[in-house]
Amino acid sequence: MKKHRVLLLFLFLAGLITARSNTVLTIRQERTEEDKVHLISAQMAEMYELFGVSYRKITGPARFLHNNTYILCDTAIWNTAENIIDAVGNIQIIQEGTRLTGETIHYLGDLNTAEVRGRVVELIDKEENRLRTQYLNFNTKDSIAYFFNGGSVVDNEGTILESRRGYYYSKEKLFCLYEHVEMGTDTLRIKADSLYYHSDSNLAEFWGNVQAWHTDGFLTSREGTYHRDEELYHFLDDVFIRSDEQEIRAEDVLYNKGSNSGILRNNVQVRDTTQQIHILGDRLDFRREPDWVRVTEDPVLVVWEIDSETNRRDSLFLRADTLLAYTSTYGKMDSLERVRAFERQEIPERKRPAAAPDSIILPDSSSHAMPGSVNLPGSPALPEKDSLPPAKDSLPSGRDTIPDPTAEAAVNYLRQNLRDVQVFLVRADSTLLADVKILGDSLFNTTDVHFLYGYNNVRVYKSDIQSICDSLVFNSIDSVVRQYGKPVLWNEESQLSADSIQFRFSRDSLYRVDFLSAAFLISQEEQVFFHQIKADLMYAHISDNDVNRFDALKNTRALFYIPEDSIITSLNIKECEEMKVILKDRRAQRITYKKSVKSDLIPLYDLTKEQERLSGFDWRGAERPLDRTSITSRTIEETFSEPGIIYKEPLFPYTLKYFPFVHALPSTLRTGVTTDAVKELSQRERENKVNPYIPLKEIPAAPAQQDNIPAKRDTIPAQTRRIRPVQERRQLQIQEIE
User: By CB neighbour count within 10 A (0-12 exposed, 13-18 middle, 19+ buried), where does 638 fall?
Assistant: First the structure.
């Protein structure tokens, strides 16, 4: 049995030898004159024979020619039968401006492949792009270089590329890098699984676990491009950006650094940590300096705050068809808009002394509170009955004053002295005063003004307040949020509406809500009855996030349903010019009616349909947002942890090994050889020894397919792909603000 095994093994080996001999014989027979390696010059050529094979020892300097490529060396062993050269000493490969140097060359002429080895193997193309490694195979026919076990590229503009293995397509000026890919410029550092770099157009394409560090922050994605000349960035698929003040998520991010503008697309989420807001949508256009942001395609603004006592988050959700926010300066604003903005500024009325009230006093509001009371903002309770007659107008009428000659003389003296002081200052240094005026105007004109607009179908939801309107406007000059287009505000059981609603803020705190023109308050009772207040103007005064006073002014009318023993039995109809409600702990403490007060109490059995509703009554409860899903069903991603804990910045160990002169590197690497970089390099070299990569005998005409690379990236990018950044740049021509 053993004899048969030995015989079979002998026959198998004999078959392999015969097959190889036949293959070599076939190549020899098919080899043309152009396929042969030619010796151009040398100092000496000697013939040797070893094991029946003829060799020529070439002593140089010697030059060989094959595929229009020169191979230079000091000494070479040339197997003419196999078309193979082994060269050492000052070796070079030169092809159309591309120069390759190393310590040894094993050239396989029939495979058009030069295996170049050395402590530093360097390839320099005509554009002075440098590739350094220790293991490089070069295809002289297709002008393709393949390196493995680590290599680094530094182009003529200082861009750094490195990876464990990769290809260089000389004709296409294309580097294709795989495994431990790192890229560095003066402002950008990138790590990725794979990367294509077009050295002629400075276009980098990368994909697979992309991580990027920029002067503005940190980024991760699965795919992207970077056009260095245009400063154009494009990242795709699960993009996350982290800066000092913001976190951004999107599926598609396009940014033009030259114009400081960009576009975010598909599931966009922007979190501003300084202002505690989120912006959601499917498209966000932005520009910087000055800041300009437009969100379309289901945009939502989320303002969140955390209750210091309960530690629970209570967020406000606002959506519209379009959200627009931008920053301008006062000097650039339209003059009419400036005038209107300042005319809208009013002094808060919190501390204005009240006139002598002609009021109805409620000594104990809690004893008169009823479950079905009219809920003004802050849910005040009204009295069960208006049992007192209408109050008279107690405001004193104006009276003539007696002139005071002493006072008039004092005023005239003060005015004269002020004029004298002004004349003196002008005469003393009119130039100084003019400079002060110019400086003041200049500082005022450069003051930043912030604007926010919500266009069409505006909806707002918060746990204690909801609202809808057609449009919303805010500017930081007067700190007023304005709602237009049939605005409605809901608070608990109350609905408030007007032609326009204004929310007035002072030092980031809401102090008053104005309901201007056709103001109407409705509060539902037992699904059947509606308490109502109607006036030309209404004001809700707010302190510490609670309503403490409510005013209804001009042509005020009110309907209050009055219960007896928890059963509504009558309707109280009020008419007056002004009504004031003082609240405490969200309960009405005092109600004051002024000017032309009328009051009627009608039992329900005598009530007509016309008396149940004030003119203009419109209950719009069906339009009320019920919860945050009425605004958006998007899931807000949780805050990302510190990137430095999970992701480590590129160390460029291969670059620091093959380009030790750090002064020749971009500023990104001018920090010397770090300990971490040395450790990383040692680890990678140990991996190479344990799992040595077997180099390909034949270099493919296109990048080899990798398991982690999409199929559309398996071939050299087409010419149409090179012009894609130009097309993307045109998309960045964001519409200017009219």
Answer: exposed
CB contact set of 721 (below 8 Å; sequence gap of 6+): 205
CA dihedral 174, 175, 177, 180 (to 10 degrees): -140
* 394: its two tokens: 């107690």
What pTM, to 2 d.p., does this model score? 0.70
For the chain, residues with pLDDT lower than 50 are: 1-25, 336, 344-444, 662-664, 668, 670-673, 693-694, 696-738
Q: What is the pLDDT of residue 510?
A: 83
All structural domains of the chain with their residue ranges: 359-390+448-621
* pLDDT 10s digits, 70-120: 999 999 999 988 999 999 999 999 998 899 999 999 999 999 999 999 999
| Three-state secondary structure string covering 155-201 | CCCCCEEEECEEEEECCCCEEEEEEEEEEECCCEEEEEEEEEEECCC
Tokens 């079979």 -> residue = 8
Amino acid at 366: S
Longest Cα pair distance anywhere in the chain, in angstroms?
144
Q: What is the pLDDT of residues 334-387, one digit of tens each?
A: 554 555 555 544 434 434 444 433 433 333 333 333 333 334 333 333 334 443
- Secondary structure E strands in 485-585: 488-491, 494-497, 500-506, 509-525, 529-543, 546-564, 567-584
pLDDT the model gives residue 564: 84
- SS3 state at 47: strand
CA-to-CA distance for 193 and 52, rounded, in angstroms? 49
Q: Phi/psi of residue 349, each to 5°?
A: -100, 20
Nearest in space to 529 (alpha carbons), one of 572, 591, 574, 578: 572
The answer to whether 497 and 514 are in contact (CB under 8 A) is: no
Are 469 and 488 in contact, with CB atoms under 8 Å apart?
A: yes
| Helices (H), ranges, 544-611 | none
Does an H or E element contain 721, and which? helix 719-722
Q: Which amino acid is at 362?
A: L
Contacts of 589 (CB under 8 A, 6+ apart): 362, 365, 582, 583
Report residue 500 CA to chain centroid gap.
33
Q: How far apart are CA 439 and CA 433, in angstroms?
A: 10
List residues bridging with 321 in a β-sheet: none
Chain centre to alpha carbon of residue 463: 28
The pLDDT value recorded for residue 339 is 53
Alpha-carbon span 48 to 57, nearest angstrom:
7
CA distance 208 to 223: 6
State the Cα–Cα distance between residues 145 and 199, nearest whole angstrom: 15
In this predicted structure, what is the pLDDT of residue 702?
Answer: 46
d(CA 227, CA 496): 54
Tokens of 431: 């130039």
SS3 state at 212: strand
CA angle 466, 467, 469 (to 5 degrees): 165
Gyration radius of the chain over CA positions? 42
CATH for the stretch 359-390+448-621? 2.60.450.10
